[in-house]
Amino acid sequence: MNIKHIAIIGAGAVGSGITQVCAASGYRVTMIDIYPQALEKGLATIQKSLGKLAEKGRITAGQQSAALEAIATSGDLAAAARADLVIEAATENPDLKLRVFRELDALTRPEIILASNTSSISLTKIGAATKRPDKVVGMHFFNPVPLMTLVEVVRGLGTSAETVAATVELSQKLGKTPIEVNDSPGFISNRILCPMINEAIYALMEGVGTREAIDGVMKLGMNHPMGPLTLADMVGLDVVLFVMEVLHRDLGEDKYRPCPLLARMVDAGYLGRKSGRGFYQYS
Fold it and tell me: What does the pLDDT look like over 37-70, one tens digit per residue?
């Protein structure tokens, strides 16, 4: 497959990160978001990130300029019609994602791959919303995208071997390490990660230790780069809650029951870094 132009749906932290990585890897990119302020913020984030990489000598000034010049923005999903591949990184909302994929299916050429960055929603269900389930695949990037090397390549029930192979090849060209997984609630990453975070929140709620103690034990004793409560704030407490609800519902086991404290914090709008307050305060 000859991929030159990639459309990214969503200009949030992950969407802008994917846009940056694609542009820095030599692809022409259109970043699409219905909210103009999201596009402005996404571009500013990319400019700042590329600037830091240039300052550290990881890219040249010429590479920095070329990456920025390769990025176009649009507030209209129809801009994806010209792309050779689409990566959806919209809000983790099943109804929204299914609607986006139905529209992308109608807008884009029937032979192109439609990838989703979903962290927990069934790729089989997303594929079934289109007329090309064989070309629907998961590309689960990790935040911050420019620094994290993993991409979970998720095979839905209808995803073809050719689509998986092409997605693995693209991930490698983006400088990432692809790992293939089958479609299952939470895939591998969140099937293991979010229950750990959820258990840390239970430990906090039950007074087993302070937030600093819980994070400190996992950092010093398990050699994690950050504690689970700090990580929850970075991921977004709303995302952690959504994943736990998916695991609890689809796997049907009480061990996946979301911690009541997590649910209360999301209800209060304490979502972590993006809201300025989660388990810690952020300026």
Answer: 999 999 999 999 999 999 999 999 999 999 999 9
Sheet with strand 113-116: strands edge to edge? 71-74, 28-32, 5-9, 85-88, 113-116, 136-141, 150-155, 177-182
Count CB-CB contacts under 10 A for residue 142.
18
Q: State pTM to two decimals.
A: 0.92
| Residue where a domain stops, chosen among 182, 214, 240 | 182
Residue 282 sits at φ, ψ, to 5 deg, of: -130, 140
**pLDDT, tens only, 84-142:** 999 999 988 999 999 999 999 999 999 999 999 999 899 999 999 999 999 999 999 99
Quote the domain boundaries for residue 244.
Answer: 190-274
Catalytic residue set: 119, 140, 152, 190
